[in-house]
Write a structure and sequence with these properties.
It contains 6 helices and 12 strands. Helix 2 (about 50-60) crosses helix 3 (about 70-80) and helix 3 packs across helix 6. By secondary structure, the chain is of the alpha+beta class. It is globular and about 70 Å long. The protein is about 25% helix and about 20% strand. The strands form 4 sheets. A 4-stranded mixed sheet has the order 6-3-12-11. The chain has a 4-stranded antiparallel sheet with strand order 7-8-9-10, with no helix packed on it. The protein has a single domain (about 50-220), classed as Roll (FAS1 domain).
C-alpha cells in the first residue's frame, strides 16, 4: 500500500512538471497566473480652479454632505474679507476644516478649536462667529494667508518663516505676523505649522499640498495660533 501511494505521488509530480514545461495554460485544471506589471499612479494635486472657488465648492456643495469648509466660509463673510484675496497670485492658503472652528467632545466644545480656545466676553466658548468682534475674526483669518508659495516642492525640514496678511503689530506675541512652515522629516512626510522651539501650538496639517491655480492650500482641523 505504501508503494502504491509513493508511485501515485510520483505520477502527480511528473504530470505537473510536464504541464509546466509544455507551456500549458492550465495546471491541474487551474488557469496559470498571467504576468502583471505594477504601474504606479501619482495623484494630480492640481484642482484647476482658484482657492476661492475651491473654498466655496467644499463649503456650499453641490453635495450638502460635503461642507467641511462651511464654518470657514461663514467666518470670511462675517469678517468682511474681500474674496479677491483668495484669488490673488503667489499666496499660500491655510483653510479651516469645521473642526478647527467648532469641535465637540461629549457635547462640550474642545479647547483646540477656535470657539473653545477663544472664550467670549462671558467667559464661555463661542457658538457662532457673531459671538466675537469682527476685527478679531478678520485678523485671525488674515493670519492664515501667507505670502509666497509654500508646499512640498519648496519646503524643507527646517522652518520657513512667511509673512502673512495679518497687519503688523496687531498680535502682541507675533508683531511681524509670521507663520512657520516645515516638512516633518519622517516616513509620513507631514507638513507642520508653527513647529518651532517653544511653540505652544504645533499643527500637523490634515490635508496638505492642494494646488489651486493661484497657490497651494493646506487644510487644518485644529486652531492655528502663534504662541511662544
Amino acid at each position: 500500500m505504501k508503494k502504491l501511494t509513493t508511485l501515485f505521488t510520483i505520477l502527480i509530480l511528473a504530470g505537473m512538471v510536464i504541464s509546466m514545461s509544455s507551456g500549458c495554460n492550465k495546471l491541474l485544471g487551474l488557469e496559470k497566473q498571467k504576468d502583471w506589471h505594477f504601474k504606479p499612479v501619482t495623484l494630480d494635486p492640481h484642482i484647476h480652479m482658484d482657492a476661492w472657488s475651491y473654498l466655496k465648492l467644499r463649503a456650499l456643495g453641490p453635495d450638502k454632505n460635503d461642507s467641511i469648509l462651511n464654518l470657514f466660509y461663514e467666518g470670511i463673510k462675517y469678517a468682511g474679507i474681500d474674496s479677491a484675496l483668495y484669488k490673488a497670485q503667489n499666496h499660500t492658503y491655510v483653510f479651516l476644516h469645521n473642526d478647527a472652528i467648532l469641535r465637540l467632545s461629549s457635547n462640550k466644545v474642545t479647547a483646540d478649536c477656535y470657539f473653545g480656545m477663544h472664550l467670549t466676553s462671558a467667559g464661555l466658548p463661542g457658538q457662532t462667529w457673531t459671538d466675537y468682534p469682527k476685527d478679531s475674526v478678520r485678523n485671525w483669518l488674515l493670519y492664515l494667508i501667507a505670502d509666497g508659495e509654500h508646499t512640498f516642492e519648496t519646503l524643507k525640514p527646517s522652518n520657513t518663516e512667511a509673512k502673512t496678511q495679518l497687519p503688523a503689530n496687531v498680535a502682541t506675541n507675533n508683531a511681524e505676523g509670521l507663520l512657520d512652515f516645515r516638512i516633518d522629516n519622517t516616513a509620513n512626510y507631514k507638513l507642520m505649522l508653527n513647529d518651532f522651539t517653544g511653540s505652544a501650538h504645533v499643527i500637523t496639517v490634515r490635508t496638505a499640498g492642494i494646488l489651486a491655480d493661484n497657490g497651494p492650500i493646506h487644510v487644518v482641523d485644529r486652531v492655528v495660533d502663534y504662541n511662544r
